[in-house]
Amino acid sequence: MKRAGFRAHANVAADGPRDSASQVSRATLGLREMLLRGALRPGQRIAEIPLSAKLGVSRTPLRLAFEKLEHEGLVKALPNSGFAASEFSISDIWDAIETRGILEGASARLAAERLENPAQLEPLRKINRTMEVISGVDVEGFAQYLSLNEVFHLAIFDLAKSQALRRSVDQIYRFPFVAPSGRVILRQTGPGWNAIRPIAEEHHRGLVDAIEHREGARAESLAREHGRITRRHLEEALADRSFLETIPGARLIKVQTAGRI
């Protein structure tokens, strides 16, 4: 695989950097979207020629896209040649959510320890205030809420000043159902959402307060507890099989193993 990857990189470089980068980006985004939509069956070899035509890219950038998505865990290399969509067990997702909590907890602790000026927290407070007044009852408002939620979480990683943590969490966020912007989990209607939302917002306020007062242990504990809300959302979604049919990425998960939830 490494040798093939080297040849792919060499060929792309020969095509010209800007056009090549654009094709690789288009191939990666298109392929990722198809995987999360369930258009490619897990375990089945993906035919490269029709796929490259569908995505409007040549086979070289498509192979680079495969390599990138293999690194993300969304595809896997087959023993002889080619790639297939990955399949995740529910245990894989629980582990990813747990890892997310560990990483976000570490980032919150470092943010508290490394905060230089309390004024740096004002953007987080502004995000919280905006989130709290969004009704979230329509698609547009809900999408805005989720986007702000992701910005809040990434801002804490920025305050932690750790590139290693940021790279690690970027990897974990790529798992289906794990990222804080994951509309695939959150539901803006129903008793689950109404019960969980105020808890999540209180966690946000507590995190800002703990970081401001340099309370690293408290910030870490709050962040890890906050991460478990993602699991609660997913458990609710998994309990509704009809809802699962509408979730991007659901077909990559062996839902039948969820009986032990």
Task: Characterise the protein shown here.
With 261 residues, the protein is mostly helical. The chain has 2 domains: 2-86, Orthogonal Bundle (Arc Repressor Mutant, subunit A), CATH 1.10.10.10; 89-260, GntR ligand-binding domain-like (Four Helix Bundle (Hemerythrin (Met), subunit A)). 68% of the residues lie in helices and 4% in strands. It has 11 helices and 4 strands; from the N terminus they run ααααβββαααααααβ. The strands form 2 sheets. A two-stranded antiparallel ribbon has the order 1-2. The protein is globular, with a radius of gyration of 20 Å. Residues 1-16, 183-189 and 256-261 have low confidence and may be disordered.
Helix and strand topology:
Blueprint: H1 2-15, H2 17-37, H3 48-55, H4 59-72, E1 75-77, E2 83-85, E3 88-89, H5 90-114, H6 122-133, H7 139-160, H8 163-173, H9 190-212, H10 216-238, H11 241-244, E4 253-254
Parallel strand pairs: 3-4
Antiparallel strand pairs: 1-2
